[in-house]
Amino acid sequence: MRIGSRSQIRMKRLELAAWFVALAVLSSVFHRRIVTAAPQNMVDSQRQSTPPYTVLMVENVYNPEGQTRPGLTYLTAVRSDGTELAAATSGTTAMTRRRDIRTPAGLWTAINDASSQKSTIYDPARNVVASTRSPDSNCLNGRDGKQILPDQVLVGEETLKGLRTLKLRAYNGSSEAIWWFAPDFGCALVQSRVDFGPQGGVSEKTLSALIPGEPSASLFSVPSNYTEVPLSRLFPCIDCPPNPKRKDRVARLDQYYYAHRP
Known about the structure:
By secondary structure, the chain is α+β, with helices and mostly antiparallel strands. It is 21% helix and 35% strand. The N and C termini lie far apart (49 Å).
């Protein structure tokens, strides 16, 4: 298959779509409703009740023509103080390494290690407490008691690689998403499958490892020489065609960034 063929372009777009869906689920910063600032006792409870762990998942991407390629490698780490890390690695130049670090107090640092850049935001109203799933709700709700994704429902319970998991599903038109969360590890996401419909392809992420205990401190380290940039410059979409909706979204992201600098 020649470089730049229609199939390669569609596969690339599917990989990009899977990337943005994963970030929506893992970081839940801009794709979740605005919440009120968590009370201090809720933040303290998050720090005390979060079981520390590290999860590694690998992705395979299937396009509508049946072709398969490796996708991203995802790493999620949670410390006992409630601080969370979501990271993704790919061989694709524009997405070599991304890390998102969020704290219960509302500090969010998005990092591009490939370009040595970062974006830092402080917003107590969008903190990790609200988007951290609670095992008491079958992993449907955040620790603030509100459901994280309104269309998400519990399908059942399954055992994956010796782990007890809760299987959740959501539909959006012709698209279907299924997630497997481990309630004994604070609802850690350990597997997912997103079907974008007949013309969209499929993204599947499977568990490679779940390591209990405090994650490596190096995962949360931000080098002092990294350049601070607005969100639009952190991961620019170089190959994206002109799109007024995307341009408007980028403008809103930067407006939010400048309004919430620490």
